[in-house]
Structure formats: structure tokens, C-alpha cells
């Protein structure tokens, strides 16, 4: 039974990501997120511009901490690529200010750590 579940899950993941524009890790090219999951490009990360992303894959979470950011103190956990252990950004666990609650459960990914793959095909 578990082999059937694993096969179905694998084909579902392939269907979800195959042929769609992606963000990948700039170090090891592991898939991190669909470009459709992008919420905003106007965020600041530790090392420059950041993207607010609704959901991501192939990331492992570090320890949670309260961090003072430009918009106030947030409870966040750094996230790391499972392929190469590169720090990719952070995950918003909790926002103290009511106006910042929309960030909870979302990812801030550093623009410089991502490769934008459009999956264009060239016709002959």
C-alpha cells in the first residue's frame, strides 16, 4: 500500500512542478518554489532584496527566534536548502504587530540566492 502512495505522491509532485516557471537554489539548483507562489518582490532580506513567497519546498527550518526587522519584531526561523545547506532566507512564524500578520506562514527568500527558471522552449 505505501508503494502506491509514494508513486501517487511522486507523480503529483512532478505534475505540479513540470513545465512551470520555478525559483531554484543558486548554489545547487534544487527547486525551491513555483514562481506562481510569489506574493511580493519589495521585501528586504539580510543580504539585499527579498521575495515574499506563499509556499516553498526543499527547505529545512533552523531554530526559531524573535528578530527585529524593518517592520517590527517577528518570530522567524532561518530556512536552508536541503541540497546544499545554503541559508535561503527565513520563515515567518509570528508577527507581533497586527498589520504584519499577513506574513505569518510565509517565506522571505533572498533574491541573490535564487535562480529564476522560466522553462521557455524554443521552436525550431
List the helices and strands and how they pair.
Elements (H helix, E strand, L loop, with lengths): L1 H16 L4 E4 L5 E4 L3 E8 L2 E6 L5 E11 L2 E10 L5 E9 L11 E4 L3 E4 L7
Antiparallel strand pairs: 1-2, 1-9, 3-4, 4-8, 5-6, 6-7, 7-8
Protein name: Protein yippee-like
InterPro entries: Yippee, Yippee/Mis18/Cereblon, Yippee_fam
Organism: Cristinia sonorae
Walkthrough of the structure:
The longest helix has 16 residues, at 2-17. With 124 residues, the protein is mainly β. The model has no long low-confidence stretch (mean pLDDT 86). It has one helix at residues 2-17, and strands spanning 22-25, 31-34, 38-45, 48-53, 59-69, 72-81, 87-95, 107-110, 114-117. A six-stranded antiparallel beta sheet has the order 3-4-8-7-6-5, with no helix packed on it. It has a three-stranded antiparallel beta sheet with strand order 2-1-9, with no helix packed on it. Helices cover 13% and strands 48% of the residues. The protein has one domain: Peptide methionine sulfoxide reductase (Metal Binding Protein, Guanine Nucleotide Exchange Factor, Chain A).
Task: Write a concise synopsis of the structure shown.
The protein has one domain (2-117): Peptide methionine sulfoxide reductase (Metal Binding Protein, Guanine Nucleotide Exchange Factor, Chain A), CATH 2.170.150.20.
Amino acid at each position: 500500500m505505501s508503494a502506491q502512495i509514494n508513486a501517487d505522491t511522486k507523480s503529483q509532485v512532478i505534475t505540479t512542478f513540470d513545465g512551470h516557471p520555478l525559483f531554484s537554489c543558486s548554489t545547487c539548483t534544487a527547486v525551491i518554489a513555483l514562481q506562481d507562489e510569489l506574493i511580493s518582490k519589495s521585501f528586504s532580506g539580510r543580504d539585499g532584496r527579498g521575495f515574499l513567497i506563499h509556499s516553498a519546498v526543499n527547505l529545512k527550518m533552523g531554530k526559531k527566534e524573535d528578530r527585529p526587522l524593518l517592520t517590527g519584531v517577528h518570530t522567524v526561523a532561518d530556512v536552508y536548502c536541503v541540497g546544499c545547506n545554503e541559508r535561503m532566507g527565513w520563515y515567518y512564524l509570528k508577527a507581533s504587530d497586527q498589520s504584519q500578520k499577513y506574513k505569518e506562514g510565509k517565506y522571505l527568500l533572498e533574491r541573490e540566492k535564487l535562480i529564476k527558471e522560466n522553462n521557455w522552449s524554443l521552436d525550431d
